[in-house]
Design brief:
The chain is mainly β. The chain has no helices and 17 strands. The protein has one domain: Jelly Rolls. 0% of the residues lie in helices and 42% in strands.
Length: 248
């Protein structure tokens, strides 16, 4: 899969423009996005509501795309990336397999526009057709509070979740980059190792990545009650501007 967003609309054979809709609904999880000048822009405008309002803590707002979607019937606990024990499906979803990978290279070239209460991320997560197939490979994760004029802490690594075979190993790596400028973030999975690169330079190498189908997740987040939140009148629009995404 290679998407340089040259077409006027989102390729719906690859992308679902919602964030984990089973725990909420398609209507309430629709991403704020547009495509122009061969770029995808995910953003969170001031009027966008909370995700899973009244249930998810801390409160968050999110615009995200994903290349897979799997969950059980309404009332079941079968679903991707549950955020608490006992979470139940609120809206039945159609199974979607837009792009799932086990080996190869996944990455994006993107610019991040964040404030101190927002973050952006690209990660791979198990399709979770079985609960233990839930591990995460975080390609990149940046919080606005960790961004300087020409440096940033870029998170990358593994989150085990319900995968008993995956070792938790996540690190925020200091890099001398301006994340507002376009940079390429990618991971290569060969079955034995996960090699993380930024602009072609190897930053981390981890052993024993997940060995099952993984879907891409791409999103920008806002945390209204973060310690650095500036209140209801906050007008800043967190934006993730993506030039291209690849999974080869």
């Amino acid at each position: 899969m290679f998407d340089d967003f040259d077409e006027p609309g989102l390729d719906r054979s690859v992308w679902l423009p919602h964030y984990l809709p089973a725990w909420s609904s398609l209507a309430a999880t629709r991403a704020s996005h547009l495509i122009h000048d061969s770029h995808l822009e995910l953003s969170i405008p001031p009027e966008q509501g909370l995700w899973c309002e009244g249930d998810h803590e801390p409160p968050l707002r999110v615009s995200g795309l994903q290349t897979g979607n799997f969950s059980g019937p309404v009332g079941s606990t079968i679903g991707q990336q549950p955020y608490r024990d006992g979470l139940r499906v609120r809206e039945e979803q159609q199974e979607f397999r837009g792009c799932l990978i086990e080996r190869g290279t996944v990455g994006m070239r993107a610019s991040l526009y964040l404030d101190r209460r927002s973050m952006a991320s690209l990660w791979l997560v198990g399709f979770e057709d079985r609960p233990e197939r839930s591990g995460e490979v975080c390609v990149m994760e940046v919080f606005g509070r960790d961004v300087g004029e020409d440096d940033a802490l870029v998170g990358m690594g593994f989150h085990a979740f319900r995968d008993p075979r995956l070792a938790e190993d996540f690190e925020r790596v200091p890099l001398q980059i301006d994340v507002r400028e376009p940079h390429a973030y990618e991971v290569h999975l060969d079955g034995d190792e996960a090699t993380f690169r930024v602009d072609g330079r190897v930053v981390r190498i981890l052993d024993a990545p997940p060995q099952y189908p993984l879907q891409l997740m791409l999103a920008v987040f806002d945390f209204p009650e973060a310690p650095d939140a500036v209140g209801a009148g906050h007008a800043f629009v967190p934006t993730l501007s993506v030039d291209r995404v690849w999974a080869t």
